[in-house]
Amino acid sequence: MHFLTSNAPFIAPQNSIQKMMLWVLIALAPGIITMIWQFGYGVLFNIIICVSTAVAAEALMLYLRGRHIAPFLSDLSAVVTALLLALALPTLAPWWIPFIGAFIAIVIAKHLYGGLGYNPFNPAMVAFAVLMVSFPKSMTVWMLPNDLLPSGTSFTDIFSIIIGSTSNNELADAMTAATPLDDMKTRLSLNQTTDEIQSASIFGSLAGQGWQWVSIAYLLGGVVLLFKKIISWHIPAGLLSGLFVISALFYLFEPGVTPSPTFHLLGGGAMLGAFFIATDPVTAATTLKGRFIYGALIGVLTYIIRTWGGYPEGIAFAVILINMAVPLIDHYTQPRVYGHK
User: Fold this and answer.
1) Which of 63, 230, 270, 305 is at 20 to 30 A from 299, Cα to Cα?
2) Which secondary structure element, helix H or strand E, spans residue 62, and what is its range?
């Protein structure tokens, strides 16, 4: 009698890296479309430069390390990293900002640690943090939402600023402004109340003008990832609840000088961070309890950096710092092994 034999594993895996990354790209689509709608075609320039640079850097590093190029490029991990970085960058950033950022993310934050699966820190956030520290002026001025742009602003104007072919500083100044988080933080330091600050045109009914819709779009994309079981609910729930609880506590005690929890959740990169950045399976905690704690710590630290730190947005720095604590979190949150006390 002949028996069919095969090698392990006998149960086929449900998700490959390529499939998971493809679903992340699909889930990012609503946020990308909304960002282009609200902040113009500078988003596309960032995406094109970041993705092309990241893919080229990935291929170069694989070649230098003697690895097969095609299998690693086709897993789409470099594309996802580049896309997350591009969406975090100002939409009128000069072309060399996304170029340098994508190079740092792939070469330094990923391959110098051994490549996919070995990097201890989120590559996109490492690149963002380096750019923020190195080029603070270029990284803190964002293009105004389309509804607030001066009449007559054209695609050519945006393109000329990005590639640096114009010296018209008045045009750039008319098209840019601080983000709602940055504006809120600066004017609170001048002893203005939140009601006075939010009467400005860059603020909407929920958070920042344009930003609130982008955050909602990322939330919808995150729900898609949860539904497809690409990510679990623990990290997003931990991050958003941590950010909500600490901001709500301060808002209850000091309502006139502290932004509302809604503003913190929808006014910056909290939704992008909760569903797409902090959930990176390589750098996040692995136990279920640890994932919730990991997310909650990022949420709390994000609030602390936003409120008392030197930067208006804290997602990137919070993710990197809590990445360092992942081994400790996993160590103390191991589930009980069957048969042991």
Assistant:
1) 230
2) helix 42-64
Q: Which amino acid is at 284?
A: A
Q: Angle at the Cα of 110 (from 104 to 112), degrees rounded to 5? A: 90
Whether residue 256 contacts residue 194, with contact meaning beta carbons closer than 8 Å, is answered with yes
Q: CA 83 to CA 46: how far, in whole Å?
A: 9
Identify each DSSP E strand in the chain by its residue range: 141-143, 176-178
d(C-alpha 144, C-alpha 244), whole Å: 27
* DSSP per position, 304-337: HHHHHSSSS--HHHHHHHHHHTHHHHHHHTPPPP
What whole-number distance in Å separates Cα of residue 234 and Cα of residue 246? 18
Q: Which two tokens stand for residue 68?
A: 């097969």
Residue among 213, 265, 219 at smallest CA distance from 243: 265
Taking the C-alpha atoms of residue 68 and residue 63, their distance in angstroms, rounded to an integer, is 7
How far apart CA 75 and CA 170 sit, in angstroms, is: 44
**DSSP β-ladder status, 176-178 and 141-143:** antiparallel
- If 0-12 CB within 10 Å is exposed, 13-18 middle and 19+ buried, where does residue 117 land? exposed
| Domains of the chain, residue spans | 15-178, 179-333
Burial class from Cβ neighbours inside 10 Å (0-12, 13-18, 19+) for residue 97 reads: buried
Instruction: Decide: 73 and 59 in contact? Cβ < 8 Å.
Output: yes
Question: Helix (H) and strand (E) counts for the chain?
Answer: 18, 2
Q: Residue 68 CB: number of other CB atoms within 10 A?
A: 9
Sign of the torsion angle spanned by Cα atoms 250, 184, 321, 231: positive
